[in-house]
Amino acid sequence: MKILLWILVFLGTFSFMEFMAWFTHKYIMHGFLWSLHKDHHHKDHDSWFERNDAFFIFYAIVSMSLFYSGANGFWFGYPLGFGILAYGIAYFLVHDIFIHQRFKLFRSANHWYARGVRRAHKMHHKHLGKRDGECFGMLFVPFKYFKK
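Above: the chain's sequence. Below: its structure in token form.
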């Protein structure tokens, strides 16, 4: 029974992280921390790294703290920490590698889901400013982006 609960907590955490990514992106990155996120939209830098990359550090610290709490008796810490870690890996694969091609992988992916996610993110990036953005999620995007 504990394994089932562990799996449910892990899956719930992974799913909740999509909401957190949307919320953080819309209200924090395009809000009071725009100064860290704007280089991701403007590409006015020559570095492979962006100030925007600092956002992953926050969730990495939360995930590691949960692993630490798991090692110290709070067993929910492990599935919570792994759920955040798994979402971070998925986000990195979809956002940084597949969409923005920071590594030249998955270039020929032409699945309906891949096309929809890429289209939604492209619509997000057409807005260069802090305001008037759309589609702040990453893995779950509106169905209109999946239409031809």
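Residues 67 and 78 are 5 Å apart (CA to CA).
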